[in-house]
Amino acid sequence: MKTHLKFDHSNKTKLRQIRIFCSATMVAGLLSSQTLQAQTMPADSGKSNVIVSSFKPVPLQDPKIPGYTYPVAADTITAWTKSPKGQIEIQKHAWGIWTALTLNSGETYQGQPLRVFETWETPDDIMTASSQALMNKPRVPNVLTPFHQLNHAGLLKTTQGKETVLGFVKYDPIAAAHIRANNLFSIAALNKMLAANETSIPAFPAPSLSLKPVFQTLKSKNLVQARYFQLSVWPGPPKTPVPFPSSDWKTCVWIDTQDTGTEKLSGGVDNKCAADGSSRTAANTYGLKNFIHFKVDAANAELLNKSTENFKGIAAGDYSVLVAMHVGSREITEWTWQSFWWTPAPDLPPAPSSAAIAKLRPAALQGAPRHYAHCAAYQTLSPPQPETGGKNVGESVYCYNPYLEAGFGPSDLPDSIPGKYKGQTVANNVGVQTNCMSCHAAANFNPKNLTTAPNYSGDRYLGLNDPRFKGTLQVDFLWSIPGNAK
Ligand code: HEC
C-alpha cells in the first residue's frame, strides 16, 4: 500500500485533504481506497500536528420505541422464528434497528449532521488505524466504492448491467473492535488459524452489527433539464423467477435535485421512463428530502473517476441518495438479516416487503427513513431448521434487496439446490429466490480454492458443520472478512 500524506504546516487550522491510495492489489482488481480529511491543531494548543478526527463512531442508540430493545436474547429470537405472531416481532425488531441506525448521531462532518450509521467504520478505516489511534484519525463518513459482492473473487459477475450503485461495508464499534483485536483483515492471521486447525474465526460478540449501505449518485451530467434524475424503482418480483436487474424494471421515479424541502410519503411512478424526461409528472417526482442523502466530496469524486467506466463523470457536489441498506446483527449465532430499500409509496411496498410490514413502522420513524421498505430473514426455511443437523425441507423464506440481489442468475449462485415454495418444487437459483442467511452461512476463507467449499446460493439449508467446510475457515457469516483481508 502506498501512502501519500500531505500536511500544510503553513496554515495549521485549515482543513487539508489527505489521500491514502491502496495500490491495485484489490479483489478482482477493483479500486478500493480511502479519502481522509484532517484538521491540524493550532500550534499554540501545545499539540501541533496532532490530527483530530472530525467525528467518532457512535454506538447504536436507543430510539425509545415502546416494546423495542437491542439486543434481544437469542432464545427469544429463536422462538419468534417459529410462529406467525413471532414474525410480527421480527418485522418490528427490524424497524427498531432501522430507526436506531438512521437517528442523528450528534456528530457532524463539514457542518453536516451525520446519522448513526454514517459514523461507523469501513474495512479501509479499520485497516488504516489502530483502535488507540481512532480518536486521532481523520475520516470522511461516506467513501463510495464499487462493491465486492458484484465481483467477489471473480465469482459473482456484475449482473446489474450498467452497474451504477456504489457503497461500502460498515461495522458498529463493537464489531470493529473485534476485527481489530483478532486481526481479521490479515490473510496471515487467517492462515494461522487454519494452520492451527481452527474451523472458524472467533465469533463476533453478541451485539455486533454490520451494514452494507448502497447509494445512487445523481451525476449532474445525467440530469434532465439540469435538475431531474431518473431512478429505477422496484416494481415487485417477476411472475416467473428470472434474473431481474434494475434495467428490466421499466418503472422509475424522478428525483428533483432542486427540491430539498417537500416531503411526500406516497406518490406515483413513471412506467415509460423516457430518457428525455417527457414522461415525468409532478406525481412521479420526489424531492431530496424523501431520501437519505449526502453530497459527494471532491476527493471521492476524483477517486471514482479513476475506477470503472460506470463511475466516470461523478463530480464534487453531486448528490448521492441511499437506495438500499443491508443490516446484520449478531444477536443469534446465524445473525439476524434485514434489508431496506427506497420505495415511492412506503405504505404499500411490493414483495419481498408488504403492506403488513409497512404498517408496523414505529411512530418514531420519521422523515426520509420512513420512505424505505424492508424484508427480514431470521431463518432460511419455515418452520426453521436447527443450526446443525437440519434438512432442506419446509417452505422457502425469501428476502433480498432489489437493488443488490434481484439481478443474480444461476451462474452467480452456484451452490443452489431446489426447495419448496407454495407447495411447488422451485429451483431457488435466481436473485428473487435468495435468502440473506443462506448465502452468508456459506461464508468462508478458502485460500486453497477448494472447489468443494460452500459458495453463494439461493435460499437453502446449510448446516454450520457441513463437511464441505473442511479445509476452509468459517468467517462467522461475514463475506466481507475474506473479501477485504490482505
Ligand atoms: C449470493 C450471496 C449473498 C446474498 C444472497 C446476500 N449477501 Fe450479503 N454479502 C455477500 C457478500 C459476498 C458480501 C461482501 C461484500 C463486500 O465485501 O463488499 C456481503 C456483505 C454483506 C454485509 C456486510 C458485512 C458482511 O460481510 O456480511 C451485510 C450486512 C450483508 N451482506 C447483509 C445481507 C442481507 C441483509 C442480505 C439479504 C437481504 C444479503 N446480505 C444477501 C453475499 C450475499
From TrEMBL:
Organism domain of life: Bacteria
Keyword annotations of the record: Signal
Keyword field contains Signal: yes
Signal peptide: 1-38
Protein name, entry field: Cytochrome P460
